[in-house]
Design a protein that fits this description.
This protein has 435 residues and is α/β, with parallel strands linked by helices. It is 42% helix and 17% strand. The chain is globular, with a radius of gyration of 24 Å.
Amino acid sequence: MFGKAKKICAVLLSVAVLVTAFAACGESSNSTSSANTGEVGNYGNYSPLGREAENGTIKLKVWGPDAAQESLREQCEEFCKIMSAYATIKIDVVPQGEEDPASQLLTDPTVGADVFGFACDSIDKLVNAGALLEVTGADKDYVVQNNVEGSVLAATVNDKVYAYPETGDNSYCLVYDKSVVSEDQAKTLEGVLEACKAQNKKFVMEANNGYYACMFLFTGGVTIDGYEDDGETQKFSAYNMDTATSTIMAFRELFSKYKDIFVNGEVTKVVDGFKSGTVGAGIDGSWNFSYAKEALGTNAGFAVLPTINVNGTPTQIINMFGYKLIGVNSSSKYPNTSIELAKFLTNEDCQKDRAVDLNWGPSNKAVAESTLIKSDAGLSSILEQSKNSVPQVAVSDKFWQPVATFGNIVVDFNEEFTDKDCQELIKKTIANVRE
């Protein structure tokens, strides 16, 4: 683990006398865009921490999800070793859900961690609250040059970068039991459902959740496009009502045809069903891929979301695709050190280690193109799915519930549902999101 990082550490320690003497002089400026290369360790006789070490030990707090605590602590420890030539750094790693930083920092950024991970759909709120330190200069260039375009877009607000991309996998795709569904059948939704029915296995989708139900709208061309000029009202792209109606009705009619095996249930039921042998396939998130592998072993199958037949035309299913980011608190007492830590935690080596330890998909281009990722069916599928998706950025809080209600109605097979009903539901859903 951390092979390159340890090499950097060795180089730094070999010149420790010179560097420490230089750092003690405090001659570097206290710039919040401190690195001259964007890569931790390539400083020469330049102190990345500015004058922050002059008053003793630097103490930072880091927020990260429960599942990543062990990995995060190891990486923070490695960072402290690397930077020990410049200062003594102590880092307190604290469990914190990726949706929580926004709610905690909006009212008072000073109570938050110096460095924290968060889901990309929170970035607008954090920026508007002044909670994030902008990524500028060489650091911005480094982020743009080394990360996939979608992740950079997710970290950008009004043409300014405010975070460091951490993953490129915060989405979902088709997960299936290869003993039930063949690779060829997994290419179409019709094939998947027929395969499941043939072996009396369930197909699970959380259609009453806006995060998943949005695929009905998006596949039909009803997609979101940021905010209106007020910065709050959800904007929708122009769409063709006939196309949207035909697509949504195709979903309803297909699921209705297989209603005996279709399950509108929580996403956790996918893996639970694999374990019990009752589920053949489902729509599941990347965060559950490792559990699917444990449940199915060599029969664990992953694929981009399949096509659906709409009036005789195979139509690619479109979903929402998000990214995990790491931000620096604008109220941090140690902005330079926090910036260096954020860069380190999102660099190539750390992303590669998380891909191995946590099965997280990378945002880093080099890791995304590596054999490590391409040989992993789950991660390679989720990265491929990003090409068939709407970025999870600038999403109004009002988006989720109306779309969840929409999805629930689409798969309510007990109620009559005509083309006219569908059109009215589309209009009503958009109106409720925009109200």
